[in-house]
Structure formats: structure tokens, C-alpha cells
Design a protein that fits this description.
Blueprint lengths: L1 E5 L8 E4 L2 E3 L14 E3 L3 E2 L3 H7 L12 E6 L2 H5 L2 H9 L2 H9 L1 H16 L9 E8 L36 E6 L5 E5 L4 H10 L12 H9 L6 E5 L3 E5 L6 E4 L7 E8 L7 E2 L4
Parallel strand pairs: 1-6
Antiparallel strand pairs: 1-14, 2-5, 2-10, 3-4, 6-11, 7-13, 8-11, 8-13, 9-10, 9-12
Protein name: Phytanoyl-CoA dioxygenase
């Protein structure tokens, strides 16, 4: 899975690797996590030269949506449409932010963000799905996504369409914009689901874990707990495009008294111009 960063942006400190994963039950936040949840080990380090050569690159012309991740700048016009929402997020006022998101200011911001997202579409497969503006207050947990029961799910795979394993690499990608005022991070296991399936099958450890929705990724982390999690910094005013239906992932933001504000949607996107591989 190839990673690309904005051209000209400093690469130092942008990407870090963990020493693997561990059960959420082994953390101080254990009670806030669902049963079986896995999280990154919080010892982070820069990638080695060899690891950088594996992480960074340029997707082949025939690359599928599930083969690459990119970080890209967001146009000022889009960010300007979020001015009122960003102010409420900076104040940490959740009620005011929800009212703005549901009102005219939120609708205007959503329209502007969708308009920009559509410029990133693959011309052969235009369209945007599941557009959403939302905010979360970081609590300091290793990951942020919660399930229907209100508990955090840990590293997980999205399943909007509940696609079978063979179709995961061609599923729509996720576009996520950091509209807040502080850095946030994309956490991901830089291995597509089919690579996980092959690794487990070769060792005869796939039985009962071939469902890509949850079982496959969890079994991979149990068998390979030292496989690193990649932590990618997304600065304010930046976005990422990633195949979240084809990789284990989650988001993270540090507690700072502000609300972590995002716009996200799904679609078939092309690699934007002006993106660097940062191989050195």
C-alpha cells in the first residue's frame, strides 16, 4: 500500500511507526473499549530507510483504490466555508457546533466540501457518497471510533457496503478533512486485507477468521502483534484519501479543550497532482 505526502511539505516527523499492537484490555482505558479491541502500542519511532522505501512510492497507472493512501492540502475556499464551525470547535462548545452543523452554516460548508471532493473524483466513476460533517472531543484514548454501544472499537475495517474480501481493494475510498485547529492522526496497518489473508493462510491460521468485516483483521493482529501501526500526521487544513474498507485503521487526536472537527465522504478518487513520495 503506497503512501504519498504533499509536495514540498516537511516529511520529518510526519510519519511514525509503533512497535506493534496490543489488546485494549492491557491499557488504562480498557473499560472504554469493546471486547476484543486492539490498539497501537504507544511506543512510536521514525521509520528506517528500508521502511521508508516500503511505505512511500508512486502508484502504478492501473492501481486500484485499495492500493494507496495520500495526504493533500485543502483549498482555502473550502476551509473558509467552515469558519463559523471552526470557531465553535475551537471553543469546545459541542452544543453550538451541532446547531451550526444542522443549520445554514453547516449546509453551506457541506456543499463547498462536496464540490471540492467531486474535483478529486475518477472521471470514469464520479459521485460522492455518505458526506458528513462531525466533531468529537478527544479523550486521550489510543483510538477514537466508537460502536453502537458507545465503546471504542479499536483498529478496525470499515464496511459500508459489506463487500466480500475479493472486492475490498476496489471499494470506494474515504476522504477525510481536518477542519479543526490542531493536528490529528490517521492510524493504519499498512497491509491490505488480501495480504493479511495470504499470511494467515500460509500458516494454516485462517480457519474461522476469513470474514473481512472484523475477524480477519483481528486474527492478523493476534498472530502478528509486532507488525507496526503507521501513524500519519494530518495537519489542520489537510485531508487524507485512504482505502478504509481494505485496511485496519482508526483516528487519533490529542485532548486540547477543542473539538476534533472533520468532513468526510466516500468515492472513487484519483491521485491528486503535486503529491510527493518522500522516499528519503
Amino acid at each position: 500500500m503506497t503512501l504519498m505526502l504533499p509536495s514540498g511539505a516537511p516529511a520529518a516527523g510526519r510519519v511514525e511507526l509503533s512497535s506493534g499492537v496490543l489488546p485494549a484490555t492491557e491499557t488504562i482505558c480498557a473499560t472504554t473499549y469493546s471486547d476484543g479491541a486492539m490498539v497501537p502500542n504507544q511506543r512510536w519511532r521514525p521509520p528506517t530507510c528500508h521502511e521508508r522505501s516500503v511505505l512511500y512510492g508512486t502508484p502504478a497507472p492501473q492501481a486500484r483504490p485499495g492500493d494507496w493512501i495520500t495526504v493533500l492540502p485543502v483549498p482555502a475556499q473550502v476551509l473558509s466555508a467552515f469558519t463559523a464551525l471552526r470557531a465553535a470547535a475551537a471553543d469546545g462548545d459541542g452544543q453550538a457546533l451541532r446547531s451550526l452543523i444542522d443549520g445554514p452554516a453547516g449546509r453551506m460548508a457541506l456543499v463547498e466540501a462536496i464540490r471540492w471532493a467531486m474535483t478529486l473524483n475518477d472521471p470514469a466513476r464520479p459521485g460522492i457518497e455518505n458526506p458528513l460533517i462531525y466533531g468529537r472531543t478527544p479523550a486521550g484514548n489510543p483510538t477514537m471510533t466508537t460502536g453502537d454501544d458507545g465503546r471504542r472499537v479499536g483498529l478496525h475495517v470499515d464496511s459500508w457496503d459489506d463487500s466480500p474480501l475479493a472486492e475490498r481493494a476496489t471499494a470506494p475510498n474515504r476522504l477525510s478533512v481536518n477542519v479543526g485547529h490542531h493536528d490529528r492522526w490517521l492510524l493504519c496497518v499498512n497491509a491490505p486485507l488480501q495480504a493479511m489473508e495470504r499470511a494467515l493462510r500460509r500458516r494454516g491460521l485462517l480457519d474461522g477468521a476469513d470474514n473481512p468485516r472484523r475477524a480477519l483483521g483481528n486474527r492478523f493482529m493476534e498472530v502478528f502483534p509486532r507488525y507496526p501501526v503507521t501513524k500519519i500526521t494530518i495537519h489542520p487544513g489537510e485531508a487524507y484519501i485512504a482505502p478504509t474498507e481494505n485496511m485496519l485503521h482508526d483516528g487519533y487526536a490529542e485532548p486540547n479543550g477543542q473539538i476534533d472537527l472533520q468532513f468526510c465522504c466516500r468515492g472513487y478518487f484519483v491521485v491528486p497532482h503535486g503529491i510527493s513520495t518522500h522516499t528519503r
